Automatic annotation (TrEMBL):
Span of domain HTH luxR-type: 157-222
Protein name, per record: Response regulator
DNA-binding among keywords: yes
Residues in Response regulatory domain copies: 17-133
Classification via InterPro entries: CheY-like_superfamily, NreC/VraR/RcsB-like_REC, Sig_transdc_resp-reg_C-effctor, Sig_transdc_resp-reg_receiver, Tscrpt_reg_LuxR_C, WalR-like
Gene3D superfamilies the record matches: 3.40.50.2300
GO terms (BP aspect): phosphorelay signal transduction system; regulation of DNA-templated transcription
Lineage start: Bacteria, Bacillati, Actinomycetota, Actinomycetes, Propionibacteriales
Name of a matching Pfam family: GerE
Keywords: DNA-binding, Phosphoprotein, Transcription, Transcription regulation
Entry superkingdom: Bacteria
């Protein structure tokens, strides 16, 4: 568990390595000083441009990449997508000064492990970096679904989901409610293994890897069709 990093006096085999991408040097310096003051976190590299970061991050292979959402030459979300297509072991935190549903949606669909507002307290950022370095996602499907239920845009039918069968649509809705395979099996009177197969097929058709990403699509569907 990530808590082992926080134990004082215990030698850790290696520090957590972090890459910083933000076009403001003062922001980068502030985050670097904050993280490196902990003693078990090391900033392995940094840049202010998306293009540079997209090349350097896979080469450096940090545990965590903290990427600013808006950059002069692109976005942290695009960098996240590029980096994770090369090396999915790198955990990404998207850093933004805007609390935007669309940005959150884009970050999750790009495979980010978390989404952090710049107003976050220093201690909370340190904790979040440690947790995602240990493989945890800071995006809870139920919480994320609530955020995305505020989305009110786009056509009633999402082209992403039009290839799903009625049963897969039903299972997508239940995944969006945060249900486990076992709970879905009980609700639909199916074997748990059958539900697992349905979920695998559904994720494949949607072109996503995780239940969290599927839950986001479900929330978006509900928002578009005017459900609350």
């Amino acid at each position: 568990m990530w808590e082992r990093y926080a134990e004082p006096g215990r030698p850790d085999p290696r520090p957590i390595t972090v890459y910083l991408l933000d076009d403001h040097e003062l922001v980068r310096r502030g985050i670097r000083d904050l993280l490196e003051a902990e003693g078990d976190i090391e900033v392995a590299g940094e840049s202010g441009l998306a293009r540079e970061a997209a090349h350097r991050i896979p080469a450096l292979r940090p545990d965590v990449a903290v990427l600013d959402c808006r950059l002069p030459d692109g976005s942290g979300v695009d960098v996240c997508r590029q980096v994770r297509s090369v090396d999915p072991t790198i955990a990404v935190l998207i850093l933004t000064s805007y609390d935007e549903d669309e940005a959150l949606f884009a970050a999750i669909m790009a495979g980010a492990a978390g989404y952090v507002l710049k107003q976050i307290k220093g201690d909370d950022l340190v904790t979040t970096v440690r947790r995602v370095a240990a493989g945890q996602s800071m995006l809870d499907p139920a919480v994320t679904a609530q955020v995305l239920s505020r989305l009110r845009s786009g056509p009633p039918e999402d082209p992403v989901t039009r290839h799903l069968t009625p049963k897969e649509h039903q299972i997508l809705d239940l995944v969006g409610e945060g249900m486990t395979n076992r709970q879905i099996a009980e609700r639909l009177s199916l074997a748990e293994k059958t539900v697992k197969n349905y979920v695998s097929t559904m994720l494949s058709k949607l072109g996503v890897e995780s239940r969290t990403q599927a839950a986001i699509i479900a929330a978006r569907q509900h928002a578009r069709s005017g459900h609350h």
